[in-house]
Amino acid sequence: MKFKPNQTRTYDGEGFKRRAACLCFKNEREDEVLLVSSSRHPDQWIVPGGGMEPEEEPCGAAVREVFEEAGVKGKLGRLLGVFEHNQDRKHRTYVYVLTVTETLEAWEDSVNIGRKREWFPVEEAIKILQSHKPVHAEYLRRLQLCSATNNGNILLPSPPPNDNMPRYSTSPAVPRR
């Protein structure tokens, strides 16, 4: 089982543990997803993710967790959604899409706890996750639903115009703190 010294669990105002995860894909087609072996049950596959550190943004936590657990880096894409695990643990997980651009031969969890990773077609991953991690299977179902309804783009309302801010900018986006 994985143990991290100095790990601080963070909770939101409603008492949910703050978590972040990524659905890691081989390419932009999003047809093969990377799963990792569970630290608690090494014969079971899960979506890489974990708890947010204090003062950490969900997107930063998601990228850090997949690097630690799956040994991959990539291009962070859209927020797929925020999922609640209500039954016993009260988790609230921010799930992002990540396109993998770099895969390490050895990574933190492979060395420390023998974690494995493997690519699966999305349909197969759903079947694998359904029995022991139904919420993780739900992440992939949401992905399929979003892709079927709007070609994978999450449609958000435009913010109201602000006369003090330029409407168009060529400068790179700066994350909020």
TrEMBL record:
It is an enzyme of class 3 (hydrolase). Its main location: cytoplasm. Residues 154-177 are annotated as: Disordered. It is found in: Cytoplasm. Its cofactor is Mn(2+); Mg(2+). The keyword RNA-binding applies. The keyword Ligase does not apply. Its EC number is 3.6.1.52. SUPFAM superfamilies: Nudix. GO terms for cellular component: cytoplasm; nucleus. Belongs to the Nudix hydrolase family. DIPP subfamily. This is diphosphoinositol-polyphosphate diphosphatase.
